[in-house]
Amino acid sequence: MRIAVFGGGAAGFFAAISAARHHPGAHVSLFEKSDKVLSKVRISGGGRCNVTHDQRDIRRLSRNYPRGERFLRQAFTRFAVADTVAWFSEEGVPLKAEADGRMFPITNDSGTIIQALQDAAHRAGVEVHLRSGLRGLLKEVGGFVAEIGGGSIAADRVIVTTGGHPQAAAYEWLKPLGHTIVPPVPSLFTFNIPDDPIRELMGVVVQARVRITGRPLESSGPVLITHWGLSGPAILRLSAWGARILNTQGYRFTAQVNWLGGRSEDDVRNTFTAEAGALERKQAHNADPFHLPKRFWEHQLRKAGIDPGKAWGSVNRKERNRLIDLLTNDRFEVQGKTTFKEEFVTAGGVSLEEVDPMTMQSRKCPGLYFAGEVLDIDGITGGFNFQAAWTTGHIAGLPGS
User: 16 lies in a domain?
Assistant: First the structure.
């Protein structure tokens, strides 16, 4: 059997290794269009590689995918987080879970994950071909003919793991095979708020709740202030769940931020009242009962028109009400987005209705399989996108499907 895997990322390597291990004697080739493989793996998690997320319950795990929840709920019954942890452990790369559930190699080095995948592929007999992008695929009697660079190859089974693309044109070659492409839009991006003074606080992190005005979109967690606007887990999750809605708005909308994690105005006002005795004689910049980052607290004081050096006891009711409003209902006019680091993730791709979640085989074209972000699957940040890659890649390589 000749098995051709197209795409040299996480899903591609996992699919090739799975195919080679589960089809003894098969000739498995992996084709990558660039001159490097596993590029996303290398940069993930700041170079540490966020391999997966420590969520062993399949239903809860699948809820972290804005696109693909029901599809993956079935696929995870064949290969999920515990299987990923065991797989890498067997390859000599034990994983560790951090407090937020993200899992990394104990080496804290993505290079160990890359080496493990390359070594496993080599031992399984997978042939890796660089600068060999897929330009077209034809279904013929008994197999496929793939156009690669200046030539072509024949294959009995094809696994497509070419990743997500920002342009729908990148998927055009799949349409003659009968597949519907869900238009791609970016997911996992940060919010640009040009000219807002808060950008001077770049590097500050606050636990907050963020909402999009007029939309049923809300997320809580760390918000990172950057030199271009707002980022961090809460923002990235919001961008994932709102990927299509925010795209239709041209990434221009109002973000409402409760910098106290969702506490109400009355609750905040009562806190100030309860601690009045301890705060009255302090200067405003030291009168923070919520223990917010100092630079951030002073920024909010100034925004409310309060001199940080002023005695808290002399701050009038109007000034305090402005401050309370800014702490619980700050507003920012978002005007654009920025891709999160280099970790481009796409919402869109091959329609899941046309793929069997238990085999990853096309329902339109027997012998054709898909894995990874080429499918209309995307997860929130935290290791979920890699888990989808390992799961779909592993299943695509299994026999009897």
Answer: yes
